[in-house]
Amino acid sequence: MNAPSRTDLLDHLIRTRIAGDVATPRENNLDNYRSLANRDPRYTFGLSFSGEWTFRDVLEQMAKSVGVAADPEHREGQDTIDPDLTIDAIEAMGDRVGQVLARGNPRIVIATGHPTGLLTIHLALARFARSHGATLLTPAERWSYMGNGLGRVRRIRYLDDVAMLDDGAALVHTHDPDPMRAILAEARPDFVIADHGWAGAAGEAGVETVGFADSNDPALFIGQAEGKIAVAVPLDDNVLPRYYGPLTDYLVARIASHL
């Protein structure tokens, strides 16, 4: 494995718009921050919050954790993810995962709600964790429920021990916490690597959890601020999968440094 330097990774994140000037527009970010402040369950990802977390509070935290523009008067157009914050969080995630693997034979659940983008990172982490003694749990396989998409039944499906949802014909995007709740009802992992509601539900249940989140998905960053999520990595979560290669190499190298 040839991991990039921090400088090379930073340049790559900006060039591919994983960070820097990202595709998610400012309007969408602000709408979602308001929705979380209003405790819309579609945006809380299964997390509950002890703080008040007004819209201004959420924006302030997202500026601190993600690097979006802090000015509430900036209401439309370009928004940003600070690539240095992305790399800092990747390093923190790598440290957490490395420490867990170093304990010996941890029980881990890996899951993604973004099979068109982030799946490639999760598959690499699953391979690495398995090769270094982790037991990857696959509970609640084929558990089903009615999701929010066109009235179709959605089921938990594992691909190389990574949990996702399918609708009978395709792997689907989801923010829902219910699938992770079903997993936790059958098994209690030591550690979870995930995103969206998969991560939120695990953190809410008190499982040590690290995850990835976009600038328009504030829940995991608020969860991190309240201590329910160990690490949330800010990034655009749906660029071309191959663009995540250098990021993945950097993350795996950081994990390996603990082993």
- Class from helix and strand fractions: alpha/beta
Unreliable residue stretches: none
Beta content comes to 15-25%
> Judging from the principal axes of the Cα atoms, what is the shape?
globular
Q: How many angstroms does the end-to-end distance come to?
A: 15 Å
Helix content: 40-55%
Sequence of secondary-structure elements? HEHHHEHEHEEEEEHEHEHEH
Helix tally?
10
Protein name: Phosphatase
Pfam families: Phosphatase
Describe this structure in words.
Strands 3, 4, 5, 6, 7, 8, 9, 10 and 11 form a 9-stranded mixed beta sheet that branches. This protein has a two-stranded antiparallel sheet with strand order 1-2. It is globular and about 50 Å long. It has one domain (1-259). Helices cover 42% and strands 17% of the residues. The longest helix is centred in the middle third of the chain and has 21 residues, at 83-103. The protein is built from 10 helices and 11 strands. With 259 residues, it is an alpha/beta fold.
